[in-house]
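Good day; I would like, with your permission, to put a structural problem before you. What I wish to show you is a protein chain and, alongside it, a tokenised description of its three-dimensional fold. Here, with my thanks, is the record as I have it:
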Amino acid sequence: MIKLVASDMDGTLLNEQGNIPSHFWEIEKNLEEKQILFCAASGRQYFNLELLFSSIKNNTIFLAENGALVIFRDKVLFENSMSKKDLKEWLQIASSLQNVFPVFCGKNSAYIEKTENETFLTEVKKYYHKLEMVDSLEEISENMLKLAICDLNGSETNSYPHYKKFNAEYQVVVSGGIWLDIMNQSTNKGVALEKIKEFFEIKYDELLVFGDYLNDYEMMSCGKYSFAMENAHPKLKEKANYVTKSNKDEGVLFTIKQFLK
């Protein structure tokens, strides 16, 4: 019997307009009635996820910042902040590349350096509800959960080759078409999801999990019923135990309904 549903957001649960499908709420009510937990597992900021699921906040586990922060009912269940010792070099690389913008992700807010690039500003505001502009990211005093890189020229082919050398010490992952995340080596959605399973006493065959991109890769090993979306990255499809319909065709909701029958 399923006791936990964990789903990525963008390209997975959310539709192509970045919205939660309208009949998700009816399905979530069915999950609640059957005492099945729901986890929003995303690279997004906690405050952004909290806003998306404000009506069911007390019934939602928030796995934010690709696993660097897990919150349930305003209580931090897990947090994994990182060293800033290489931040200066990361920022220098970003500034040397065209259309590449770093985002300092803290627990209390996200921070970007002052810019008038409207394309970037529109993109970053989709994922970060609490966002501050500063003169330099090196001046931020709060702990860093991750450094996100918004690469308008394509993260996998443009910026990743410049950051992949840090993989020996950090987790450097392509998290979307124009997004790259640098985190602690021990930070990923899979590690965070295992912490959630332990906290709520969820077994391997009691988890239903969905994802579409490489930042979902480790999650696919956490549960027997791991599903990659039809629109998922080829490597994720290889890793998952199953493939479901695309986010456009509401594959997450379709699959959950099959398990609720």
